[in-house]
Amino acid sequence: MFHRLKNDFRLSIITLLGISAIIGITPFAILRFVEGNPLAGFVDLGILSGIVGSLAYAWMTGDTERSGLFLAIIICAGAVTVGAVMGEAGLFWIFPCLVTTFFLVSSRLAAILNLLSVLALMSIETAFSSTVQMWTFATTATVVSVCAYVFAYRNQDQRERLEHLATIDPLTGVKNRRSMDEELNAAAANAERSGLPYALVMLDIDHFKKINDVYGHGVGDNVLTDLVALIERNTRKSDQLFRYGGEEFVLLLPGVDGSSLQAVMNNLQQVLRRHLKYPGGPVTSSFGVALLGHGESVESWLARADEALYHAKETGRDRIVFADKNTQLLAEPA
Ligand SMILES: Nc1nc2c(ncn2[C@@H]2O[C@H](COP(=O)(O)OP(=O)(O)OP(=O)(O)O)[C@@H](O)[C@H]2O)c(=O)[nH]1
């Protein structure tokens, strides 16, 4: 539970706001009934049920986009209804709602929802005691919305930047090992659900240390970026490349097995042999390839590909080694 809250920003916001709203609104709902205003009491109860429903939906399905939107609509509609039913005393509820929407949906959608809510309230004659009060309300609501918009925009921008820094390898621009773990787990879950075959390739540049030692790290870096460009140009859009560490990469190939996998690998090896170069000549690579077995864990899948790569290195480099389902190694002709 804490893991989900920590890793899913919107879920944590929905949970925090949902619980705050429940704690904040419940005493008012009770008070309305005690004071003999059942209409307002039922409005509060309706809002509370909507919030609880969105919260439960978010936790059960993980679909925080839809539940966030649902929650934003409920609180805006709720605030407008409270303003309509209670008049002046109910108007203040719109202000926390105007800020909250920016945490639940995209900034643009939040701005639209806020505008619609303020216009809806302004169209209810009984909600305001005078025209001056109505325009004062409209102005303050706009100021609050604009400030919340600027804050949410900056916040989202910074979050995206942080996410980029945490998941992308700065040298090559491909995803790093951290994102790889997530993607491999997602692939294994999808394979289990849909039966789609997945292949994993561990690729390691041969004698890379020599390139660095003789020509310097700058040349080594260029070889790494050239390798990534070549692989990306010669694989499908659905394939994903990750930097596993140093001069080692992992390529995740969905939807290939058997002979098509062999063809993909042979083509990739040829492309790299032909086009990957450093000032001292061509650069070769070794490959360990493993198909995801039925019910196999990601750890075992990676270990088999790693073992196959080790075998490729041990048996002369510049080779593709396929690991079969039972972790026995099948050396392919280079
Ligand atoms: N230029 C550059 N070098 C790196 C980077 N990351 C790791 N390396 C170097 O990669 C080299 C890896 O060397 P080894 O693990 O001995 O592998 P190798 O020389 O390729 O030998 P084999 O894999 O056995 O063929 C080391 O010299 C690291 O310093 C990087 O980002 N840029």
From TrEMBL:
Its cofactor is Mg(2+). Its EC number is 2.7.7.65. GO terms for biological process: cell adhesion involved in single-species biofilm formation; negative regulation of bacterial-type flagellum-dependent cell motility. SUPFAM superfamilies: Nucleotide cyclase. PROSITE patterns: GGDEF. InterPro entries: Diguanylate_Cyclase (IPR050469), GGDEF_dom (IPR000160), Nucleotide_cyclase (IPR029787), Rev_trsase/Diguanyl_cyclase (IPR043128). Residues 196-325 form the GGDEF domain. It is an enzyme of class 2 (transferase). The chain crosses the membrane at residues 12-33, 39-60, 67-87, 93-122, 134-153. GO terms for cellular component: plasma membrane. The keyword Membrane applies. Keywords: Membrane, Transmembrane, Transmembrane helix. Gene3D superfamilies: 3.30.70.270. It catalyses: 2 GTP = 3',3'-c-di-GMP + 2 diphosphate. This is diguanylate cyclase.
